[in-house]
Amino acid sequence: MVLGVFLGLVLSCLLLLSLWRQSSQRRTLPPGPTPLPIIGNILQVDLKNISKSLRDLSKVYGPVFTLYLGRKPAVVLHGYEAVKEAMIDHGEEFAGRGSFPVADKIGQGFGIVFSSGKIWKEMRRFSLMTLRNFGMGKRSIEDRVQEEACCLVEELRKTNGSPCDPTFILGCGPCNVICSIVFQNRFDYKDKEFLNFMDILNENVEILSSPWLQICNNFPSIIDYLPGKHRKLLKNFTFLKDYFLAKVKEHQESLDVNNPRDFIDCFLIKMEQEKNNPKTEFICENLVFSSSDLFAAGTETTSTTLRYSLLLLLKHPGVTAKVQKEIDQVIGRHRSPCMQDRSHMPYTDAVLHEIQRYIDLLPTSLPHAVTCDIKFRNYLIPKGTTVIASLSSVLHDDKEFPNPEKFDPGHFLDENDRFKKSDYFFPFSTGKRICVGEGLARMELFLFLTTILQNFNLKSPVDPKDLDITPVANGFVSVPPEFQICFIPI
């Protein structure tokens, strides 16, 4: 009896403390829905379609509002003006990485994607410099992508025009490009090691985009105690960590400091140069996780975009025909597409931009955090507060893109059918945290898709009108539904 009363008092005190902390925090933060103790506003958010929930809440609370996903507040930025003002005008202050507990469990703040502060700045600067030195945006990387596009076409020919699920094949191309940059070699599409690697990457994206992972990230205490998909994700992360650690050891044994072969070699040389600096960030942990980050980010986002691209092109055969006509006029059938062609292909360029706008691949990007106390739009946001930038609200802005829910390449064409840029085009995020591999991704999308359409007509086994293009998951990444496609040689 006494024990029960005591426990009741303790729980009541904890509840009151939680309410008091939330109340004191809310006085300086932007307005938002009233949170419940412990769970916050989680019941007011559709974890299968977070973007829609944020849009609905913004209609009530404005473009900058506070949401409690669990006990901690997150400031939401909705619409172009709010996202630009924070991420670009105050880029340095909003450049922190918000909490992502499932990833932090393995990565512990190392690498590029989930790091902050000095580690992030050093790893990002080094990665950008190394990618440029290996030709990102230059001829040498373009050669690799063109070569891989030809390999992809040969693999597609083996389907003999029969219906197939393109998920695996479309993942192989971007994966091999990253392989050649990070550890110098590409894999045969039938290689067992490669097949296992691709399966893990695909599985990780599906799990990361599931509602369960949103719950784990907002209630991290359950990660260690409850079963669920997060266990498989942690196991996969551990496998990737060990895989890259083995690659690093192989490189250490064959390293020639005068002839770096790839990203790992360049990092090892930098580690040797910095070995007497006790404050250096160039340590083995950052090498392993930076390599893994480049691999995961450079493979899955591009392959998912390619897969969604083909689904949209099947759904809109008239658009596909116009792209193929432009390919015939500018490139022809007897040479491979190159990046110089893009400036002469306004319709194709507009289609690629519209695909990325329409699919809204990363609806809320990854969470940011403010790096210091900052006054933003008359609200005081304390250092470390999580910030969620709704990229969906920018890419689907109805003033910039009339009928944003409609797939229309005309969104990126002027009245003379010339390509038209848009300041609202944020598929790779924006500001200090914009995707490191943006240039490589844009190159791959253009070269892979134009090479496929140069060599094949696309045919759907079902009527295009019956194709479902609604994403099956819309959490971390917008995942397209499974579909079948026939690649008919031209």
TrEMBL record:
<keyword id="KW-0472">Membrane</keyword>
<dbReference type="InterPro" id="IPR050182">
    <property type="entry name" value="Cytochrome_P450_fam2"/>
</dbReference>
<dbReference type="GO" id="GO:0020037">
    <property type="term" value="F:heme binding"/>
</dbReference>
<keyword id="KW-0349">Heme</keyword>
<dbReference type="InterPro" id="IPR002401">
    <property type="entry name" value="Cyt_P450_E_grp-I"/>
</dbReference>
<feature type="signal peptide">
    <location>
        <begin position="1"/>
        <end position="25"/>
    </location>
</feature>
<dbReference type="InterPro" id="IPR036396">
    <property type="entry name" value="Cyt_P450_sf"/>
</dbReference>
<keyword id="KW-0503">Monooxygenase</keyword>
<keyword id="KW-0492">Microsome</keyword>
<keyword id="KW-0560">Oxidoreductase</keyword>
<keyword id="KW-0256">Endoplasmic reticulum</keyword>
<dbReference type="GO" id="GO:0016712">
    <property type="term" value="F:oxidoreductase activity, acting on paired donors, with incorporation or reduction of molecular oxygen, reduced flavin or flavoprotein as one donor, and incorporation of one atom of oxygen"/>
</dbReference>
<dbReference type="Pfam" id="PF00067">
    <property type="entry name" value="p450"/>
</dbReference>
<keyword id="KW-0479">Metal-binding</keyword>
<dbReference type="InterPro" id="IPR001128">
    <property type="entry name" value="Cyt_P450"/>
</dbReference>
<protein>
    <recommendedName>
        <fullName>unspecific monooxygenase</fullName>
        <ecNumber>1.14.14.1</ecNumber>
    </recommendedName>
</protein>
<feature type="binding site" description="axial binding residue">
    <location>
        <position position="435"/>
    </location>
    <ligand>
        <name>heme</name>
    </ligand>
</feature>
<dbReference type="GO" id="GO:0005506">
    <property type="term" value="F:iron ion binding"/>
</dbReference>
<dbReference type="GO" id="GO:0005789">
    <property type="term" value="C:endoplasmic reticulum membrane"/>
</dbReference>
<comment type="similarity">
    <text>Belongs to the cytochrome P450 family.</text>
</comment>
<dbReference type="GO" id="GO:0006805">
    <property type="term" value="P:xenobiotic metabolic process"/>
</dbReference>
<keyword id="KW-0732">Signal</keyword>
<dbReference type="GO" id="GO:0006082">
    <property type="term" value="P:organic acid metabolic process"/>
</dbReference>
<dbReference type="InterPro" id="IPR017972">
    <property type="entry name" value="Cyt_P450_CS"/>
</dbReference>
<keyword id="KW-0408">Iron</keyword>
